[in-house]
TrEMBL record:
Keywords: Coiled coil. Pfam families: HODM_asu-like. The keyword Coiled coil applies. The keyword Coiled coil applies. InterPro entries: HODM_asu-like. Residues 31-58 form a coiled coil. This is DUF3445 domain-containing protein.
Length: 283
């Protein structure tokens, strides 16, 4: 059995379906480090320098809320992660030597230089949750510029089946999250390259055996005022072929792939590759 995936492909054989799948989050796991962190931090700092106008957007007026969350994350790093040194608003990641001060730029921009998580701030207004600030360095085929200022329903408009499966639940579910009980969930996709910064889909001709298993580990943390939610996204790319080290997982994931309808296959950019992926897993 392969134990190399951080979040392995589902091996329950159940049909794919849209669901929130929220679980209670241990504060010690708000931020995830890992063996890929050093390389990711190098990429993140480079992209913040070269593509800042793509990876960072904000609506004016939410700086205080962003700073409050940034300081909570800073304190969390100091408490649970020994690779970080925290001094007032200064955060240093010891393995890379990267050091930032939360007050010297937008606090999300500064945090994004020393942690792997992308950060999105949601504000509850007009009976909906709206994206008002974000640093999204590793988008999975979506553009922050097109999402900033929109509510969660508009943000998820392109997702097949969203209106029937999730839209009726989203606002109420987010409203019910308690400040003292943050939650987390995960998403998966299959990509042709290991590139994490992919705001738009670019086709690549690759062998099926060279596809990448991309996961997003997401957290949601409510503010004490109940007006804000911080949404974090921890992205990883791992070789999909690792799945074949676990024959049972391989067999069950075939069933999941076979359950994807044409609209979801198109959305996940797997319409052309699904047959090849299933054949690869069978052999």
């Amino acid at each position: 059995m392969s134990t190399r995936f951080i979040y392995p492909p589902p091996k329950d054989g159940k049909p794919f379906r849209l669901s929130l799948g929220l679980r209670e989050l241990d504060p010690a796991n708000w931020i995830e480090v890992g063996s890929d962190l050093v390389e990711q931090l190098k990429q993140r700092n480079e992209l913040l320098e070269t593509k800042r106008n793509i990876v960072f957007k904000e609506v004016a007026g939410y700086e205080e809320a962003a700073l409050t969350y940034a300081r909570a994350l800073k304190d969390n790093l100091g408490k649970f992660h020994s690779d970080y040194v925290v001094d007032d608003d200064q955060i240093t990641h010891k393995p890379t030597g990267i050091s930032v001060n939360l007050l010297e730029d937008h606090p999300f921009v500064q945090l994004a230089r020393v942690i792997a998580e992308d950060l999105c701030l949601l504000s509850y207004e007009n009976s909906s949750w709206n994206l008002v600030a974000g640093v999204v360095i590793f988008p999975s085929r979506w553009k922050l510029l097109e999402k900033i200022g929109k509510n969660i329903d508009a943000i998820h408009e392109p997702v097949p089946g969203y209106h029937g499966a999730l839209q009726p639940l989203m606002v109420d579910t987010f409203n019910k999250i308690k400040p003292e009980r943050p939650v987390w969930r995960r998403n998966w996709s299959l990509h042709e390259t290991e590139e994490l910064h992919e705001p738009t889909y670019t086709p690549h001709k690759v062998e099926i055996s060279d596809y990448w298993w991309r996961t997003e580990r997401q957290t949601l943390t409510k503010s004490e005022s109940n007006q804000f939610l911080l949404f974090t996204i921890r992205n990883r790319s791992e070789p999909f072929k690792w799945i074949k080290e676990d024959p049972q997982a391989t067999a069950e994931f075939i069933k999941t792939l076979q359950s994807l309808d044409p609209q979801m296959l198109e959305y996940k950019r797997l319409a052309q590759a699904s047959g090849g992926l299933i054949e690869f897993l069978k052999n």
